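My current task is to audit a protein record that another person submitted. Alongside the sequence sits a line of tokens, each denoting a local backbone shape. Please read both lines and tell me whether the tokens look consistent with the sequence. Do not assume that whoever made the record got everything right. Thanks in advance; the entry in question is below.
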Amino acid sequence: MLATLEEKLTDQVTDHALELPSSSNSSKKSQTGRHANGADSAAKRPEDRSPPVRSDIGTILLHWTLVIAIVTSLLTGMRLSADAEHAWFSKLFEPILPQGEIWTWHYVSAIFVLAVIFAYAAYMTLGRLKRRISSKKIVVLTLPASTKLRLAAVNVIAYWILFGAVLTLSATGVLLYIGHGGIWVTVHYTAALVVLTYIVAHVVLHYCYGGVAQLLRLFRPQALRRFPGMSRHPLALATALGAIVLVGAVSLDFGTRDSLVVAKGNTLPELDGTLDDPVWQDAAPVFIRTQQGSNLDGTGESTVEVRAVQVGDKIAFAFRWEDKNRSLKRHPLIKREDGWHMLNNRADISDETAYYEDKFSVAFSTTDTFGGGGATHMGPKPLSDKPAAFNHRGLHYTTDGSLVDVWQWKASRGGMLGRVDDMHFATPVEPNEAQAAGKSRYSAGYNPDEGKAFYVYNYIGDPVTHYHGTVGVHRLPIDHKKMTSLMGTIDLSTEVSEDEGSQWWMFENESVPYSPEKDAEIPVGTVIPGVLIQGEYSGSRADLLGGSRWHDGHWTLEVVRNMDTGQSQDLAMKDGLFMWVSAFDHNQTRHTRHSRPVRLTFN
């Protein structure tokens, strides 16, 4: 029976049999033998000249391929995690995390992890190597076995924990990829931490088991030993399976992506922020799950409904997205005893998540590259020869000379007045003197189109206090009581909806340049808008007209533009363009996102 147990627990890779303590009788015989052979017999034993331990070629190749894929996935994933609003642990690794176009590396490495896992499982089955991770080895922990076999049993437990964590990572990664967020973000992150912990524990366990020689075995190949019933070519068959999984995953992804069919219409819709126009009834919608944004009632998620219709040489889009509150308070100013203060939480680093307006962004690209057409570059300083982003989150730009056409609706900066800002991602521009000195925000390739907008800001920041002390004011209301009335119910909580028809911006004809005399007329506690509307939109920046309305927990936005504006900073609307959408719930840059673009298809 003991012999049978030893046979079952023998590791065919390490060749270590179960080492049970000797019985008292066998100990006595051993001692008698030693006395009979002489006290110095041990000194005459030949030296142990056993060859160094090795691993088979298939195990080595699959092991290191999996290690590279997992480490790449972990490092890129930690970079994405470090971007989260309240991240702290992943930020500890900031100095060693990669920067730049992270999304492609993260997704590609994740697919490779999935493919190699299938290949590894097939290889162990075809090569009859499953005994390496047999759960039967765990029984050693209940027996008076040697330290080595106990470590081997612990290592088996660690293997199964790894398998569970990687499978969890894969499953939740798929959920995130197709648009599910919420709790799955936390589960995905936790599984990644388990894998990270395993890597360290794995190295330590193997070192304790056999020292440096045990670690070096994965650099010392040997042919796979043959066993009855083993496949003739286990590595080739396993690699083929991995390739099939890889191709299948990619094909499934591309084959299930949404297409937005642009309908044909005869009359443009009225731009009033409703979908009552008959033209919208003939336009089939697509629904895009977006997630990992800031706010949005704590979920960070918003599903976006999109429709499109072509009317002659113009195209109209309708966007409807979830947002519990109607937020218009973009950096309002409040008068206190010591002067005017601009309400904010992180305006100094361009990462406001409290006193800001709702926004919505659409990006069009000629390529479906991950990260919004390859234009999203993560990290504190993705461009080594250019200034860093103030918020250290990354920069938008393209590296191949391509253009991403960006439309941005900004509720209090013209959005409620029928304007949508026309912008773009392109090759990084050279920083000006203030940007190079770190005194002004550098946005790389993210810039407005040529022309002018009609909004400016009503505050002058102090470089010492960085918006956390008093600020200067450009203009004051002619009649502060009337301005207060136009703003509707003033509730400085960031989680309440502003009144329908309320105005959290100030027109030029409603205001006068700042003067101490006019300031003295305004009582302490008065709140005035932080946005000024003056002048007109012009140039390429004025290509977009829109209409918006918030109702029952949803924003609806209609946008009209020429099919081809003829502007170098715009993309002509044509079959095969790819589209991404993002919702901002009273925050500056922490919008929702989705991984898979939607393809435009014209009838």
Notes: The CA atoms of residues 112 and 582 lie 28 Å apart. The radius of gyration is 32 Å. Confidence is low (pLDDT under 50) at residues 1-43. Residues 183-216 form the longest helix (34 residues).
